[in-house]
Prior knowledge:
The chain is an alpha/beta fold. It has 13 helices and ten strands.
Amino acid sequence: QSVNLAVDNLPTSVTSLLGRIIEGSGKVLDGGPPVTIPALHDAQHQTASGLPAMLPTGIKIVDLLAPLRLGGINGIFTPLSGVGLMAVIGQIMHSFHQHGGCTVYLFLESEQQRAADQPLRWREWGVDDRMIFMTHASQDTEQAHRQLVKTGLAVAQQLQRSDVPVLLLMDSRLAQMAGMVDYLRAHTAHKSAAAITTLVYGNHTVGVLPPALDALDALLTFDYTRALHRLYPAIDPVRSTSTLLASQATTPSHQITAKNVRRLLQRYADLRPPMDQYKLDIDALWYIEDDPHLAQDIGRARRLDRFLTQSFYGAEPWVGLVGQLVELEDTIAGCQQILAGAYDATPEDAFYFIGTLAEAKS
């Protein structure tokens, strides 16, 4: 069951940190007044129900096929450029902030990623006003990098004590240090009221992740073919996964729908390359004699492929559409209707960059 986080007015102890750029040692790097970093405490491992819970993002393809775990450690990885990694992270943060949360961003500074540039970089997605930027140089020692994580967790806990949910956004080079994932689990709370949810990002390939990142709660990765066809977000619907789909955090209806959607999209993914390359229609696949439902399944898969697109906040200048967030219940219901054939006669383009299925009718 999804947990909706209430929006609270942020206390001064929180607002004084927002927008600041802080080194792992606690030293400020933005020329502003110094900040006080509290002590780090072990987490209270509990949820209101005692069960894992989902963090709704409002992104249809994520919430349906690879839901993030509230208070868990989630990953978003791709070695590809130009597929929208930062856009998806920005949308997750936008949704999180709309529900009263703040982001503690732990990154390693380099010539390509200067600390002073980070607020402007994230302003593009409209999320910088609820972020705290924390860094060390990428060439610093492992001890310094561990101190950065420790300081970031202490700041996250300070926000949590003020009942502010926290998204801990972290460079994968920090997360894959020996013992770091266990360290994060020991210091991030699973309280439903104000959890610390970790999102690790990097350029890894899902399926051959570093061993330290092999047991995360949810994994998002990208599909270059979706990006080529401008099916954004270009999240890979087959290889993106979540442990929540095998737990009581998701309903049987959600689990069955996700399984059926993934099955059709996997079937379509196998046949798509020759169909695209040689401009084949379904009749050209005459040699497939053992699947009488092939044409029907491919048609529904193509509609699902398009229904799982949506416009993002911050991307309006490029797509010309207002960003939107979609409730999980609407996503499940829409996919169920497409799977059932209720929209077989509706043109495929009617599903492109819409929110709920009701928009396809209009």
